[in-house]
Amino acid sequence: MSPSETTSSGAAAPTSQQTGAPDPYMPGHGTNAYRVTRYELDLDYKLSSNRLAGRAVLHAVAQLPVAAIVLDLTGLRATKVQLSGRKVRKFSQRAGQLIVVPDAPLLADEAFALDIRYEGNPAPRRGLWGEVGWEELSDGALVAGQPNGAASWFPCNDHPRDKASYRISVTTDANYRAVCNGVLISRSSRSSRETWVYEQAEPMATYLATVQIGRYELLALNSGKPPGQVPQYVAVPASLAEAARAGLARQPEMMRTFKNCFGPYPFPEYTVVVADDVLEIPLEAQTLSILGRNHLGPEWESQRLMAHELSHQWFGNSLTAASWKDIWLHEGFACYAEWIWSEEAGVLPAADRAAAAWRNLAAGSQDLLVGDPGPELMFDDRVYKRGALALHALRLGCGDLAFFALLHDWADRNRHGSVSTPEFIVAADRTTGLDTEALLHPWLYEEALPPLPAGQGTLSR
User: Fold this and answer.
1) Do 187 and 68 belong to one domain?
2) Are 267 and 313 in contact (CB under 8 A)?
3) pTM of the predicted model over 0.90
4) Confidence of residue 12 (pLDDT cuts 50, 70, 90)
5) What's the CATH code of the domain at 412?
6) Distance between CA atoms of 42 and 57, rounded to whole angstroms?
């Protein structure tokens, strides 16, 4: 039976009150009716057949009275559901959702646990942004979850503001390494299978959860773990090990620069996974990033992508936009981090990067609001570049000392939380003394491109 059809009879369609208000950019995804505090995922994956058998235990709390629990799950079939230790008699699947009907409605503030067994052949889901989710590689698998790909491999409340801790266990073929979010806590072998267990203690949005499987070796990028330095690793096929070490040689310096500019690194360690495939773009996940074999060069285009993904650990992963309309808080900040690294690395000053970006924007269409671009354009390059220019204008308006104090304060006060543009404006007012709303409004909420801000800020260290 197709997973888009009913799998257990008698489940009624949920009402809007039961599902909560979805993000307008993602209608039909996520809910305010409950929040998940922890996911415990046990996955058994066979590479040759692309077959996934999963068990997901979700610990959650109802936010309002709930007659039906709605989860996101697409392309996979739920076979058994328990609610707080008791078998659920009514559950169904349709339109990318798993609908679980308790025997009695849940009350507001009531804690509950869902234990879901499911199976199938995972595949990326298609949408406005191409294919996202679980993908097969030439010799392995990866998950690219942004913005709504999480449901392609586990049942979840797929919304960026619903952040939870995770334990992810992956059993797969021997001689393959599974890399997931967080810290590896155990590895065991049995017959021709190996099990890898990771703990992601810091709260994480569903789209940032990931599984990477390949014939990877794990190499230290800063061997010896010097005191005060974040442990950094690369998971890479043996044939690409030297290219990865060369391409990522300056990443420890990037890390030091971003710690100086943004504050302490928000997680215990950082890993870069290098797939033995050509990837269109690098991929972002919490505590790790994924590069293709084509992203390892010493040239600026590759190096800026490494800096971009690293900076997302602060802006996007630790601090996650509560709504997708505020995605400039991820991408504008990460783009500006590229310019900071360009200046620190002696490639090109941030002011020159800003001027070049402004010229390109001025020559193109000006029909987008960076602070609310709409779902079709949320990953438009103008959100990245004009968002970065908004930060550059703020930096020139208040000076380096106040600007980097703001970034430290913003990252520290909201560590592992959800953020919004109005909150950033309040934080900037508090730290810089500027009328931040007046300064940023033309960059974020007007289509016409503002003039290039005057000044030549130089990175203070």
Assistant:
1) yes
2) yes
3) yes
4) very low
5) 1.10.390.10
6) 9
